[in-house]
């Protein structure tokens, strides 16, 4: 059993761990359990709770005793008895099941909608009857008051099959080209269907007339969402008499009040995948929405995320066990997942021992899911040479990086840097030796890193202490003794670079002040070498001389800045000269430029003109366009201005237009000459 936590909500995965093959004998299974700790510790809540290859749909009977699941391959249905914690029966089918519905309180009446347009009815003993609908079906709902089955699919019609009379009734004609999902409200039995055009049509079964139309595709597009194509409806679920949740094919969930055409809230999964399932959790007012990648639980009033789960395999369906905190999923894998979330509710009565088990685990916390994984960024993957694994099952995307198995990470790190452990070991030994030295009686000495900065801080602290003594204030904490700034004087990566341009410009008096400190450093190093403590001030100039020097420094501050700038310019000139020499030494290779179709090469001056134009303001460019005649600005009646632009014609277009003009003129001249000849011939005949 694995435990994960998100937003302080603990999720227990009861199906985690390896499953034993069916063909193993009991003796071998017991032997494996003795050897393997993971197999011994796993929890098999329901025996053989899996499918041969893939599970597509999973549902719970109304009495809560039976869990039914369909999958492949071969197409089959399996019924699990929760009271016996094992499989009740298994039935193989002729074709794959699209969806199914349990009509009775137990497993005695089941309807299957299959791929080949077949509708199959099963009773307690097995197969009962089979019929066919005119078009391929995608979903169906059962209307309990009239015993009607409503089928939607690849057609504009909704087919009705009455189970009391045993015949098809007149179908409902809709405006949609195709329908994907449907549902019937459990309170007032309103029938709703989601179309491929992103609309929801609501019908009254009593009058067989449409009573409402919602355009969910338009409402799902907000400022934050990015969609490709028209969103179609992929999930639909009623909650009580007035609320309805709609899922789109682009990953949005819309919550509606049936009295309004605008959604109360729009929640985006941000994966762009179709919503597969929507469930309501009434105890905490949550909506559980799932696409093929993630299951999200969020508050239906605020839209705030409660928690989420990302299984290893793609999700096909989600089922919430009624009045409990148990969640089951059908996946693109043989094993069907079972999750227990104590915050949502208690464990079902047939597995009440889970409550005691989770309480013990909370008292004695063990390793979570992420203890066996290492979080790495893209840069870390490139350094390890594992960038090609992005998108594979070995990496799980999470926030700005990936989770990978800790064993794989250690192997890759050993191969990338085989001497990393030895370096780490030496560094640890060095740190231990320094820690033991720190316990001895030490001389007052400066740190190895940033000695001048440390000396400056010591001087400033001495001055501050004198002021504090005079004013009788409390002593301030020292930066050198503060653990937060300890690394700055130990790690060489924090060494101040005094040759950098920023340092020299921001600290123009550093050169003079650093000379004084260098003298003091030399004196301190000599004293340290002799093993003496320095208590008195090192020999130097008197305080009066220092005060006079400080005043001179203030006067010469501008001159020092100018000198530093001159030095920086000289260094830049030297660098440029070196680059020119390198460029002259290298052989220049000819460069080829490709001209677009329909354009002629004039000169390189055109590009320069364009660059100059781009630098000008919009006002200057508009004036230029007016002079050239490509822009016309006129005042409108309202008081605003109207601007019309004429596109510049390329040389090829001009030539083409000139050729067309010539051709038209030639044709006109030919027509005129022909008409003139005809008129002359006519006159000749008359005279004759």
TrEMBL record:
Indicate where this protein resides in the cell: Nucleus, Nucleolus
Q: Give the species.
A: Gymnorhina tibicen
- Write out the biased-composition intervals (Basic residues): 664-688
- Please report the name of this protein according to its UniProt entry: Nucleolar protein 10
Under the heading Pfam families, the entry gives: Beta-prop_NOL10_N, NOL10_2nd, NUC153
Gene Ontology terms describing biological process? maturation of SSU-rRNA from tricistronic rRNA transcript (SSU-rRNA, 5.8S rRNA, LSU-rRNA)
Q: Which UniProt keywords apply?
A: Coiled coil, Nucleus, Repeat, WD repeat
Q: Which family does it belong to?
A: Belongs to the WD repeat NOL10/ENP2 family.
Q: Where is the composition biased (Acidic residues)?
A: 528-538
User: Which residue numbers delimit the NUC153 domain?
Assistant: 482-508
Q: Where is the composition biased (Basic and acidic residues)?
A: 648-663
Residue ranges annotated for the Nucleolar protein 10-like N-terminal domain, each copy included: 1-364
Domain of life per record: Eukaryota
Q: GO CC annotations?
A: 90S preribosome; small-subunit processome
Xref: InterPro entries: Beta-prop_NOL10_N, NOL10/Enp2, NOL10_2nd, NUC153, WD40/YVTN_repeat-like_dom_sf, WD40_repeat_dom_sf
Renumbered residue ranges of the record's region Disordered: 528-557, 636-688
């Amino acid at each position: 059993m694995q435990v994960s936590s998100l937003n302080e909500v603990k999720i227990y995965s009861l199906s985690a761990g390896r499953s034993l093959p069916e063909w193993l004998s009991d003796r071998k299974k017991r032997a494996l359990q003795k050897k393997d700790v993971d197999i011994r510790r796993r929890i098999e809540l329901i025996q053989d709770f899996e499918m041969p290859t893939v599970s597509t749909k999973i549902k719970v009977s109304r009495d809560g005793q039976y869990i039914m699941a369909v999958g492949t391959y071969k197409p089959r249905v399996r019924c699990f008895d929760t009271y016996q914690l094992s499989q009740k029966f298994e039935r193989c089918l002729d074709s794959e099941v699209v969806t199914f519905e349990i009509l009775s309180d137990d497993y005695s009446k089941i309807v299957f909608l299959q791929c080949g347009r077949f509708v199959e009815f099963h009773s307690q003993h097995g197969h009962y009857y089979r019929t066919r609908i005119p078009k391929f079906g995608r979903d169906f709902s059962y209307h309990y008051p009239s015993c009607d089955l409503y089928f939607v699919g690849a057609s504009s019609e909704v087919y009705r099959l009455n189970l009391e009379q045993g015949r098809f009734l007149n179908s409902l004609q809709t405006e949609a080209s195709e329908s994907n999902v449907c549902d019937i409200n459990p309170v007032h039995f309103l029938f709703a269907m989601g179309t491929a055009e992103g609309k929801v049509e609501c019908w009254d079964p009593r009058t067989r007339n449409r009573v409402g139309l919602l355009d969910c595709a338009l409402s799902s597009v907000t400022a934050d969402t990015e969609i490709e194509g028209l969103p179609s409806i992929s999930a639909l679920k009623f909650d009580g008499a007035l609320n309805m949740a709609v899922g789109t094919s682009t990953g949005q969930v819309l919550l509606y009040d049936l009295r309004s055409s605008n959604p109360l809230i729009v929640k985006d999964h941000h994966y762009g995948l179709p919503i597969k399932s929507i469930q309501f959790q009434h105890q905490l007012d949550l909506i559980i929405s799932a696409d093929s990648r993630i299951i999200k639980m969020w508050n239906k009033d605020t839209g705030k995320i409660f928690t989420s789960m990302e299984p290893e395999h793609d999700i096909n369906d989600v089922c919430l066990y009624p009045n409990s905190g148990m969640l089951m999923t059908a996946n693109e894998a043989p094993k069907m997942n079972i999750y227990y979330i104590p915050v949502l509710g208690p464990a079902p009565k047939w597995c009440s021992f889970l409550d005691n088990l989770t309480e013990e685990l909370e008292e004695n916390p063990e390793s979570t899911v992420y203890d066996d994984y290492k979080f790495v960024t893209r840069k870390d993957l490139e350094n390890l040479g594992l960038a090609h694994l992005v998108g594979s099952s070995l990496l799980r995307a999470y926030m700005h990086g990936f989770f990978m198995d800790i064993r794989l990470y250690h192997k890759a790190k050993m191969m990338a840097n085989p001497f990393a452990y030895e370096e780490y070991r030496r560094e640890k030994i060095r740190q231990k030796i320094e820690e033991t030295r720190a316990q001895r009686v030490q001389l007052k000495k400066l740190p190895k890193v940033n000695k001048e900065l440390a000396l400056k801080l010591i001087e400033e602290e001495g001055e501050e202490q004198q002021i504090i003594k005079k004013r009788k204030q409390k002593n301030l904490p020292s930066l050198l003794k503060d653990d937060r700034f300890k690394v700055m004087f130990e790690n060489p990566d924090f060494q101040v670079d005094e040759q950098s341009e920023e340092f020299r410009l921001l600290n123009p008096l550093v050169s003079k002040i650093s000379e004084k400190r260098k003298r003091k450093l030399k004196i301190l190093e000599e004293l340290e070498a002799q093993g003496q403590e320095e208590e008195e001030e090192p020999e130097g100039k008197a305080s009066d001389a220092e005060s006079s020097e400080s005043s001179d420094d203030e006067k010469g501050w501008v001159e020092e800045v100018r000198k530093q700038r001159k030095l920086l310019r000289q260094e830049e000139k030297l660098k440029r000269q070196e680059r020119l020499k390198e460029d002259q030494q290298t052989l220049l290779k000819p460069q080829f430029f490709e001209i677009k179709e329909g354009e002629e090469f004039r000169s390189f001056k055109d590009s320069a003109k364009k660059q100059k134009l781009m630098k000008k303001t919009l006002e200057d460019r508009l004036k230029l366009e007016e002079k050239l005649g490509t822009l016309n600005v006129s005042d409108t009646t309202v008081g605003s201005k109207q601007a019309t632009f004429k596109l510049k014609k390329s040389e090829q277009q001009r030539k083409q237009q000139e050729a067309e003009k010539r051709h038209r003129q030639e044709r006109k001249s030919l027509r005129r000459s022909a008409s003139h000849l005809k008129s002359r011939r006519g006159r000749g005949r008359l005279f004759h």
